[in-house]
Design brief:
heterodimer, A: 281 residues, Rossmann fold, 6-stranded mixed sheet, globular, B: 267 residues, two-stranded antiparallel sheet, 11 helices
């Protein structure tokens, strides 16, 4: 679905005469492949290049070196730009800055309008997308009066209405409160499981990662770890060296184990921890 | 709350005027204004009054909302009336105080002028009160459509207008936030003379502009990510299509204009 081969992206700074003064390599030799229907999480602390990588997935940025394929299309081919953006929808961090319509349903219809979908079908799509994120009863509201989590779900509905095969979410929960975060993640998981849409979730909240099929950890523009959440979170020391936390239950299990209690590796949730503790007794 | 302010002055209600196509309302308002200037003599103004009263009744908007629009022009209205009253020459002098005299012609012109201006404002208020800002921009876009051939960026302008409408409350809230943050650090927005006050606004405006540009950048990216590429090949979720009632409304407006013209010609 989404494939990167030796992907490189450099930000260049220019001085007043237009000479390059500084080159920052935000993404450095990244290679990975994401299968259709997967739920993939990309982790990394600030400045690790994860947002830059995300922007390559719907051709907002094009690579300096290497290649990015989205559903078999090279993102550098300009005539395929709109096809790529329709296939890989993107949800951004700030909910206020990505809602265009003054009424919820108008905003959800914005994408299909741009694609030239006939009017009758736009309405069908708007209704089903709002239903998919459980926001149908707010369809006539002004987005200004919704909570952060609700706004973000409207933004997701706006992408779903374009019938994408893949949704890239660039830290969609960073500006939300814990309840809003739960709402958004629940909506995203439902889309992945019910509609079988490929989800690429970029985040630095570890609790959101445990549901993923696959995790990529980025540091200084490189993919440094790759595996299932269980594989990744069993390496607490290594994660710490990349300035990343682990979920609380995992951290507690890790500390307990260091203190001499016999526990298995890769505990992710509180329930698992409770069970393991009961058994070890 | 600053977020609750409504833009424009839309008054939500369920009336036939609210349901009319915005293009009809725009054109009807223009026609009504033109008719006001064509009308001559009492019968003409009587016809305009009847028309306006019926329209206001149909709109189901409380009359007080219509009058609100008049407050803004009270000064202009007074000046026009006073000038017309005292400075129009005429045959019969009704009152004379020192060099100022009120003539019969002056009195008539002043009254007609006042009626004209009042009706003009009330008439256009009916339009803005019954049409959402978004419908208005849509209507304008369609009406200005032919200008596209002259390379006027009609779609872009209307898109900018609707985005501005969406972001005004957000930026207002942001202004509020920045102001509070600055006050918490000892900024003073209330004291001092005009120049000092203006100077004190600088630390408010700079962060506001920076954030507005950042928002614009984000928004542009989000729009592109959702396949926005200008007006070409774009379909409409709520296309403007004339219904039977819209044609009927055009009919009524044309009849009204005909009556006004007829009254002028006959009398």
């Amino acid at each position: 679905m989404v494939q990167a081969q030796g992907l490189v992206y450099e930000y260049k700074k220019y001085d007043e005469e237009g000479r390059e003064t500084e080159v920052t390599r935000a993404v450095d030799q990244v290679t990975f492949g994401i299968q259709k229907g997967d739920f993939v999480a990309i982790l990394g602390h600030n400045g690790s290049g994860k947002s830059t990588l995300a922007k390559h997935m719907n051709a907002i940025l094009t690579p300096t070196g290497g290649t990015m394929w989205v559903d078999g299309r090279d993102t550098r081919e300009e005539d395929k730009l709109w096809e790529i953006r329709q296939r890989a929808g993107m949800v951004f961090q700030n909910p206020d800055n990505q809602i265009i319509g003054t009424i919820v349903e108008e905003d959800v219809g914005f994408g299909p309008e741009n694609m030239g979908v006939p009017t009758k079908e736009i309405w069908e799509r708007v209704e089903e997308s709002l239903k998919a994120v459980n926001m149908l009863k707010y369809r006539h509201h002004s987005p200004n009066k919704l909570s952060g989590g609700q706004k973000q779900r409207v933004a997701i509905a706006g992408v779903v209405a374009m019938h994408p095969q893949c949704i890239v979410l660039d830290e969609p929960t960073a500006m939300l409160d814990p309840n809003g975060r739960k709402e958004v993640i629940r909506a995203v998981r439902a889309l992945n499981q019910v509609e079988e849409i490929t989800v690429i979730l970029i985040t630095h909240y570890m609790e959101e990662v445990i549901y993923a099929d696959k995790v990529l950890v980025m540091d200084q523009g490189r993919v440094v770890m790759e595996g299932t959440p269980r594989e990744i979170f069993s390496q607490v020391e290594k994660l710490k060296s990349y300035r990343l936390d682990v979920p609380q239950a995992t951290l507690l299990a890790y500390e307990l184990k260091r203190a001499g209690i016999d526990l298995p590796d890769g505990i992710l949730t509180r329930e698992e921890l409770v069970e393991a503790l009961c058994q070890s007794n | 709350m600053i977020r609750d302010i409504t833009l424009g002055q839309y008054y939500p209600a369920n009336s036939i005027l609210h349901k009319l196509d915005p293009r009809v309302k725009l054109l009807a308002t223009l026609t009504f204004i033109a008719a006001l200037f064509v009308a001559k003599g009492w019968p003409g103004y009587l016809a305009a009054t009847i028309f306006l009263v019926v329209i206001i009744r149909l709109s189901r908007v409380p009359f007080s909302f219509m009058v609100r629009g008049l407050k803004a022009i009270v000064m202009i209205l007074m000046i026009t009336v006073v000038f017309n009253l005292f400075l129009t020459p005429g045959d019969k002098i009704l009152v004379q105080v020192w060099k100022l005299k009120i003539t019969d012609v002056g009195l008539r012109t002043a009254i007609f002028m006042a009626i004209r201006l009042t009706y003009l404002i009330v008439g256009s208020s009916v339009m803005t009160l019954t049409t959402t800002p978004n419908d208005l921009t849509d209507g304008l876009e369609r009406l200005m459509g032919p200008l596209k051939k002259l390379h006027v960026p009609v779609h872009e302008v209307s898109m900018m207008m609707s985005i501005a409408l969406r972001f005004i409350p957000i930026l207002l809230e942001e202004t509020d936030k920045i102001m509070k943050a600055q006050i918490a650090r000892g900024a003073d927005f209330e004291n001092g003379n005009l120049i000092q006050k203006a100077k004190n606004l600088v630390p408010l405006l700079v962060p506001l502009f920076i954030s507005a540009f950042r928002r614009a950048n984000d928004l542009a990216m989000a729009m592109e990510a959702r396949c926005y590429h200008g007006g070409e090949g774009r379909t409409k979720m709520k296309p403007l299509i004339y219904a039977r009632r819209d044609y009927a409304a055009y009919g009524v407006v044309i009849c009204f204009l005909a009556v006004i013209i007829a009254l002028r010609v006959v009398l």
